[in-house]
Amino acid sequence: MIEFKLPDVGEGMHEGEIIQWLIKEGDAVTQDQPIVEVQTDKVNAELTAPITGVVKTILFSAGDTVEVGTTIFTIQEEGELPSKEPASDERDRSQLQPCDEEGGDRLASPWPPEAGRALATPFVRQMAREMKIDLQLVMGTGPAGRIIESDLLQFAQSNSDLREHPVHSNDRILRKREPEKKVNQPTSAETGMEERIRLKGIRKKIAEHMVKSVSTIPHVTHVDELEMEALKELKDQLKAYSEDKEIKLTFLPFFVKAIVIALKEFKTLNASIDETTNEIILKHYYHIGIATNTSEGLIVPVIKHADQKTIFQLADEIRQLATEAREGKLSLEQITGSTFTISNVGPIGGVHATPIINYPEAAILALHKMEPRMVVRDLEGVIRLMMNMSLSFDHRLIDGVTAVQFTNRIKELLENPIRLVVEMR
Amino acid sequence: MVVGEVAVETDVVIIGGGPGGYAAAIRLGQLGKTVVLVERDRLGGVCLNKGCIPSKALIHSAEQFQKLGDLSKMGIKLPQESISMDLNVWQDWKGGIISRLTQGIAHLCEENGVTMVKGHATFLSDDRVGVETDGDFETYKFEQAIIATGSRPFIPSFIEVDGEYILDSTASLQLKQVPESLSIIGGGYIGIELGMAYAKLGTKVTIIEMADRILPQVAGNLVKEVSQHIRKLEMDVLTSARVEKATVVDGQVHLHVHSEKLGSKVIVSEKSLVTIGRVPNTEEIGLNRAGVITGEKGHITVDMECRTNVPSIFAIGDITPGPALAHRAAKQGVVAAEVICGMPSANDSAYVPYVIFSDPQIAGVGITREEAERKGYSVKTGRFPFSANGRALATNEMKGFAEVVVDEKSHILLGMHMVGPDASNLIGEGVLALELAARVEDIALSIHPHPTLSEVWMEAAEAALGHAIHIVNN
Q1: Domains identified in chain B and CATH numbers
Q2: Which residue among A96, A100, A106 places its CB closest to the CB of B309?
Q3: Which residues of B are known to be catalytic?
Q4: CB of B297 within 8 Å of any CB in chain A?
Q5: Do B413 and B438 contact (CB within 8 A), yes or no?
Q6: What is d(CA A33, CA B151) in angstroms, rounded to the nearest whole number?
Q7: Cα–Cα distance for residue pair B436/A123, rounded to 1 Å
Q8: Which pLDDT tens digit goes with each residue over A214-259?
Q9: Which CATH architecture group holds A218-423?
Q10: Do A81 and A26 form a contact (C-beta atoms < 8 A)?
Q11: ipTM of the assembly?
Q12: Rounded Cα–Cα distance for residues A65 and A39 (Å)
């Protein structure tokens, strides 16, 4: 009998929601046959049968949220005899766990090695008790899946429920278990006027991601403005042609194109810092993330190899990704791997912003509202269609001058779209 | 309740001053609790006074005695007069060891603020214990209690231990004279240890075991080496045999033994020793008044924190289900003490080593090959004989071997077992390896000092990987 435990199908996910069972108890299944559909933080995944056999028990129903590492169904191998139920103990063991390892028929489960405990050293087991972590839920990254100290710290950090129990692993002697303190309890005057919602799913991921970015990258934001007259004219000229091709043309593909051209010239803006090795990674591929608002929160679908695509192809892909993002249909593949991110908040409004870099990228560009504005040209006040853009960049990698040169280049290409055309490939 | 009774208030009462109880008392003292440790006999319990320690003293002496015969081939010439063993002198030596150890424990308890009380303790309720000392009665009111009353030899109803002819293990260590002949009922580890020791001192030993082999709890391949030596010592072993009656006739013990092979037979010996098993001391301490439940065999079931069904009462050692081993009790004692002080302690290890002071010694930790296969592992083993170890040869101790049991998939060690010289000390490496979730490579790649017996672990690990240096690998 194999107990199928919910695996970590996303990157560092901790729970998943059972969307639907594709089989029922007693069904015979073949290895790799899809068994259950699970939704995690950002993606949906179909989990398949680990072996050929008969599904004995299904332990959760659709709609249940299950923590990683929890058994969700059991499957009996072909030809395996039904395992006998462990004989009920003669002793009264209500709420008692046997201390010895002698008694009790345990189910044979060859992997992971059980030998009566999780694969961890006595010190790590002690640390887990102090941190109130169930070792069964922790993924070991040590040799042969051993759970090591850093796995516990990682687990605690990403599990908000445990935040209120700080760890002092070397300070176990004489430390008494203190009554659990309630953190951030509303004061009496506010009782009933607050609502508490568990930080989970996409919102939790966003929170973790933002903290990681801001606490790692020294952000600087540089703001500039663009004159959009020429680009608008070009877009209008293409209107009929694009409608013929059934493509809804917006400004965004032009921005993607201009950014990619500028990125090729200013390589440190399409780069990352690897903090573990102290190396700068210059990327010679151009995957542009488009920050997209969904009912669940912010998601960043990625246009892969944006430098190799035409304006129309980009327009079409942007529209498609945005739709899929809102419908929650994106795969993990479609939301990872961007090298530079655009946040197009213009349609909603605003003058400028200090966007947070999509870690581990080097910069993010926010595009703001386009509007007629009074500007000075040839010492005369005139009204022009203007737009602001805010570039946040990693000051470890990029100097202020480089950042300004980068936006100047984008500005040059978009204010004179004919230059954009000749630079395109 | 007695009217006008005044109870002495204390944080913790511990009943039983054996290796579990005194360890708990000292740990609680370290953690700042007031502790009353009640012991009805002597501090140190069975282990120190009539078990582990005195039996090891006897085994050691017998071994030294027997080894004298091997000295001539090393060129050592002994005077021709006959060599003898004076158990009277031995008793004094043994007494010295015990009193030194018990004094040490008393001193440690004292230094840690533990109040030691001699007497018989019984629960009066779930927060009171009464202690009777030579007719006086004192009541103690506690926040928590630890029951550590240990176990005693099991004696079947048709046998009467008189301490003179028919002995239990305790009495067998108090003899003043080496008996001519000794019959031992029960071929478990106590029977084998004491039987081999007396055989070495010149006693004609007969062992009667109900199972089809001696040491039935131990893996057969390990026991084989011991059985060979038992034959060499000219001990008689009757297996699948049952003692039906034991009588004393004219200063001789007559054991009526029946087995399918031999039919009925009377074995006559000067003395007889009963080593069938041990029973927990849980009857006379008023457990029902405290509400503590015991199982069928009198054991108290506990959780990983050593709590009984009554949250304020803990139980440790031989009275809890599991092997009756001092090191298990000591670990549980420390855990119970720390849990009482609110620390996140737990007795969470599956790796309780076992040690048998037979000749050669047997020791092991973790699971055997057969157990691993039953659990569904694909198993790899590596074995290395002491006969290929230089140090073993140079000390004339060539019996036995070391074996590692490995999960074939991950190479994580599942068990380490050994029969051979000083196995009891050598198993320490195995305990650490298993607790640290070591892989077989971890042992194979570690430099082991040469020339030592410990090299056999390295070679056994290498053998599991197919490249031991000092044997031909299959």
Answers
A1: 8-153+279-340 (3.50.50.60), 166-276 (3.50.50.60), 360-465 (3.30.390.30)
A2: A96
A3: 450
A4: no
A5: yes
A6: 56
A7: 9
A8: 999 999 999 999 999 999 999 999 988 988 888 888 999 999 999 9
A9: 2-Layer Sandwich (3.30)
A10: no
A11: 0.73
A12: 9
